[in-house]
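sorry for the late reply, my laptop died twice this morning and i had to redo everyting from scratch. anyway the thing you sent over, i finally got around to it. pasting the sequence first so we're on the same page, its 237 residues, then the predicted structure underneath. double check i copied it right bc i was rushing
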Amino acid sequence: MTSAAHPHGSILLADDHGLVRHGLQLLIAEAMPQLRVHLAGSLAETVQLLATAGRFDLVLLDLTLSDVHGMAGLRRLREEYPYVPVVILSAQDDRDTVLAALDAGAMGFISKAAAPSELREALTRVLAEHRIHLPQSVSGGMAATAPEGGGRELSELAALGLTERQIEVLGYVVQGLRNKEIARLLDRSEVVVKKHVTATLQALGAPNRTKLLVLLSQRGYRVPSLRAAAPAAGDDD
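ok and here's the structure:
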């Protein structure tokens, strides 16, 4: 196993059920003891921690927080903190809900309704191997065809004719960044970024970002970290 099996960094787990929140914290700590886990019980607390507690590598977000309904919380986080990837963690895992979350900018979706062993595997996939995980309602139960050691690298897509820049843009797209944020990171115009995005979708045979995430999840691709590229806290305006 590569060093990805023991990730460093910090994540924010947002769930309004105390037993679930602390149970997941223990499960993550057991599997990945070097990963710092911060807890939030509401969207307001989540936003406060994002604003004050330093940079997070990932937010695990429940869709049913007490102070927000449906996708509104996810959309707010993607709007206000676009450089922090969000994975949804919810017991509501029907196909329509999962696809709506992906369309709203989620990088993946983990079902809390899964068996403990499956939930542990899903968390490991996302947090340790940096792979996109989707529940069976969307993946169709297909096993991700990833090589032993943690998944495929996006750089392998050069075999499809994608340039290094297009693959870099693809990494940002799957994490939910909009074209304007990608343009800012790359110091390029949105027009240029849009051309890169279109080229990557066409090369992979995906009509949109949501279908792209499903495809990359099924094929076991890893997602690069935004940590080095993202602006410092307070630089989003």
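The chain has ten helices and five strands.
thats about all i looked at so far, will dig more tmrw
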